[in-house]
Task: structure prediction
Amino acid sequence: MMKLVLDNEERMVRDSAELFLTDTAGPSLLREVRDSGNPLGYAEPLWQQMIDLGWPGILVPEEFDGLGFSQVAMGQIMEQAGMSLASSPLFSTAVLGATALTFAGNQQQKTEFLPKIAAGDLTFALAVDETARHNADHIRTVANKTDQGYSLTGSKCFVVNGQSADMLIVAARTSGSDTDKNGISLFIIASESAGIESVTTSMMDSRPVATIHLKNVHADESQRLGALDQGGATLAHLLTVANVHLTAELLGISGECFKRTLAYLKDRKQFGVAIGSFQALQHRAALLWVEIELCKSGVIKALRALDAEDKDAALLASAIKVKACKTAELATNEAIQMHGGIGMTDAFDVGFFIKRARVAQMLFGDCRYHLNKFAEYSGY
Amino acid sequence: MQDDTAFRQETRTWLAANCPASMRSYMPVGETCSGGRHFQFISDDQKVWMQRMAERGWTAPTWPTEYGGGGLTKQHAKILHDELNAITARSPLTSMGLSMIGPALLEFGSEELKQQHLPAIVRGDIRWCQGYSEPNAGSDLAGLQAKAEDRGDHFIVNGQKVWTTYADKADWMFCLVRTDLNSAKHSGISLVLFDMTTPGVSARPILLISGSSPFCETFLDDVRVEKNQVVGDINAGWSIAKYLLTHEREMIGGIGSTTAQKTVGARAIDAVGLREGRLADEILRGEVADWEIDFMSHQLTTERVRDESTSSSLGNASAMLKLYGTELNKRRCELLLALEGLDAMRWDESSEARLWLRSKGNSIEGGTSEIQLNIIAKRILGLG
Result:
């Protein structure tokens, strides 16, 4: 039976991720990336060390040179990445890229790409969104059939790591109208391909994203990922996995904000006593702690559901995205309020957490989007 | 030990053969099986179901078999729980004996007390009530004043208890009394057991806003309590009281309930209907989904805390589960009231309004929500 506690392997991954990221990443590193105007949005040495640790291959099966660990294990890294605000191509490559290929790739695609992902030789980005508010059913980018394969035309926005990734996974319409659930196909496209123009957009979390314009971009049959017109199911699975890992990151952000706030409540003195001795603040801190504990249970449940290929994984993912978004909103807002004026200053780190939280909340559907999805899955 | 799959299969087969059909449905209000000397079963099925489960010790699945329990591991108890839920089986027996004094006796009771009381609890023969709160000891429970005078081989107890759940229907009481008037507030308290038919014990039901009277005022006038009915050591009752409070919090927080309920989502569909596959009231739809997600989160947290815990008590985590569970139940009742509209506000026996009114007490009884927040802040977060 699925236990909602970590097994030994998962605990080991968590402990080593905590040790490494606490040491190596942290808000100060992200601040450095931001202030240096680094166009990648991440520190290359950090990514290199993640590669040395084998993290890009966590979800890659062993037969393709990966570690073949569980989603729960990957989730532990994502949570620690949230706590330490570690910015890297890990999510887009090791979660999205590896999952897309493992789930929908044919033998040749797996053999070609998965070992390179595991080795850190190739980075990926998922180009799906075409609107500022996520709507997976709305795909206007087209892939028209040609004699040699396909010709892709359209625009994708807010592509995470899109400005730096070697490869793009592009969702395009091969039949049907703009909002049909069917008729979507996925393509693996090199980001250097002719006809691609990538425009970098700065974001408040210091992690730039790309708007990617495709104009008559050629793709061979061999670049199609999964069956023709049936990409919707793969996309849905990818988004489920993506959202579950975002909830792990959000949980990490919430937990870290809480930890810092609690320490401040014990440390900061006003009226001659620690402000944490005031019941008004004690109760707010206790309520926040409870919300984070509840969120924690949902995250591990959803990660376990991914590993078990649970038929309710999508419902669980939406449920916990709602919970994680609300918890992160509360935790980051309370962190600023309870820190008082210093929480509003750029010199203080809490700002980095709230900015990243809101982007991660909105990415692939915020709590409103997923509340609606949850209701749909529940039959009402 | 038997493996999980075999146990699940055997359990399923046994339940299929032994759970009466009428016990496989959502339990309406007021049909809880509480057991006890004077309990009126609603049907033969209800009685048979309790007895069959009790014979296997499955009214108390994890208690040792030597005291009549099921002797199941946590894992097997969870499987049993799942299998009961899968057929929407009603809880065969719900009592304060099972959820409160039983676990306390297992932890702190003498062998004599265990032998005397536990099997009767498992069988549903004896119904218990709790003598905790007093008119001047509510949130400040340790301020209780009921006093027990030492008379050699027994005590004579005098005082008044209040909010005693079903004292008028219970057979025995576990009761906090002051056995040392001179020591500090938390010392000098003992936990004693006595039969409600002992001379000097009288209970008067309190009519609540819901129109029902689940609680009583209980008067104790020169009540004789034998010394062998003290749980644990004399004057060391407060730590047992705190242990019991965690069990009370788990119970009120809706934890450990084996009663399946129709989901709020399903009730919403019945009440307002679907339009193109969506609840016809969009605002309500969002509120229902939001509640369901919080409910799921609470259930998963109960499961996780159990998985993490190495003992039968959830300890301080019960403060969180009680706090959240009761606030959730209040929200649930508000939602159900909204779903049923004015129908819910008709004043008859099965009125939704009665449950809704009753739920207001959830965040008061067993320690208010504010007391739970204090516990979390002080004991878990270390805020002084």
Observations:
- The domain at 233-377 of chain A is CATH 1.20.140.10 (Butyryl-CoA Dehydrogenase, subunit A; domain 3).
